[in-house]
Amino acid sequence: IMNSSSAADPIDKLLERIVKEAELKPIADYATFLQRVFARLVDSAIVLALAFGIFYAVQNFIRKDTGFESDYVIQQLSQFVYAFAIILWSLFYSPILEATGGTVGKRMMRIKIVDPKTLKTPPFRNCAARGLIYLVLVALVILPAVLSCFAIFISDEKQTWHDKLSDVICIKR
Question: Mind listing the pLDDT tens digit of every residue in the chain (173 residues)?
């Protein structure tokens, strides 16, 4: 005859282990969709201003140092400004600032990209991977990048695709 207390022991042990793991898991207050959108708008304005600033500096340099073909060269370069801004964002602005505590927009909105296990600033490699993944999503004709941002509505940890693939989460400070 089986003792009912001995039959419950494995289940009790399993329940105790689940409770302990749940207590160890850090609880995060995830950033909202609107916080992330406003942070992105601020960061976009900064990066676009920087890209256009660089473009106008290059334009002035070209006009000063070249002859009759400067208008043609400037016209061709002007088609590259928005692509340059996306590259600037993905390869420099976002990875460097995220690895040092957050972009200007995220700091203004009081949100931060963190490692989901430690809730600390992720290593630079994760931030760089996140930027590269976002660049690839944008390069795939923008739609995947937009869909990635809406993925926070179906993700348990409110992650975009580029967050999930680079193993980071976005939380409120």
Answer: 445 555 567 888 888 877 776 665 556 789 999 999 999 999 999 999 999 999 999 888 888 876 667 788 888 888 899 999 999 999 999 999 999 989 999 999 999 999 988 889 999 999 999 999 989 888 887 788 888 889 999 988 899 999 999 999 999 98
For 146, phi then psi, to 5°, come to -70, -45
Write the DSSP assignment of 73-116 as a string of letters. HHHHHHTTHHHHHHHHIIIIIHHHHHHTT--HHHHHTTEEEE-T
Alpha-carbon distance of 66 to 64, in angstroms, equals 6
Query: pTM for this structure?
Result: 0.77
